[in-house]
Amino acid sequence: MTKGRLLIVAHQPSENTRRLASVACSAVAELGLPSVAARLLKPAEAGANEVLESDGVLLGTTENFGYMAGALKDFFERIYYPCLDHTRGRPYALWVRAGNDGQGARTSVERIIQGLGWRAVQPPLILCGEWRDEFTGQVAELSQTLAAGLDAGIY
Ligand SMILES: Cc1cc2nc3c(=O)[nH]c(=O)nc-3n(C[C@H](O)[C@H](O)[C@H](O)COP(=O)(O)O)c2cc1C
């Protein structure tokens, strides 16, 4: 039985951010854990059903205009009330890709998540400044940590 259904909702407007999203998903498969499965969706493809069917959520966004990407905000607007009474305590983690410090995106996500009552099980990963190839490894590690935690039942 799959006990670790990890939903990855990632905004991917550029080649770099597509790499991050892709590695977040493939890194889970590389763990080879039979009871863990990652599903990667763009925010526009994900809705309340996908969240309700998950055991953990990994969010990826760019920072746009000092806020989360509009696509991710739209996702939250669609899932907020359908999920509100059903996903409290849901483990989640977040990565932000930003040219600047990424704090606007981070806090905007955290404010909504606070309302939903989800639990941050890892500190937010802020990938800021010029692109660095090591970002992909950091996202892979975050995703694997979340997946392994779900598998072990520690969340
Ligand atoms: C409309 C728009 C607004 C943006 N606003 C910000 C911003 O406020 N702060 C920031 O650090 N980056 C901002 N960016 C840059 C994005 O965060 C950047 O495109 C994203 O991190 C992907 O970068 P990369 O593909 O070059 O790695 C903005 C990009 C767009 C398209």
What does the model show?
- This protein is of the alpha/beta class and 155 residues long.
- The chain has one domain (4-152): Rossmann fold, CATH 3.40.50.360.
- 45% of the residues lie in helices and 25% in strands.
- Strands 1, 2, 3, 4, 5, 6 and 7 form a 7-stranded mixed β-sheet that branches.
- Helix 1 packs parallel to helix 5 and helix 3 (70-84) runs parallel beside helix 4.
- The longest helix has 19 residues, at 134-152.
- The relative contact order is 0.22.
- Flavin mononucleotide binds next to helix 1, strand 3 and strand 5.
Descriptive tags:
single chain, 155 residues, alpha/beta, Rossmann fold, seven-stranded mixed beta sheet, binds flavin mononucleotide
Number of helices: 5
Supply the helix-strand structural class. alpha/beta
Beta-strand fraction estimate: 15-25%
Distance between the termini: 17 Å
The CATH level-2 architecture is identified as: 3-Layer(aba) Sandwich
Q: What form results from the Cα inertia axes?
A: globular
Q: CATH homologous superfamily?
A: Flavodoxin domain
Whole-number count of domains: 1
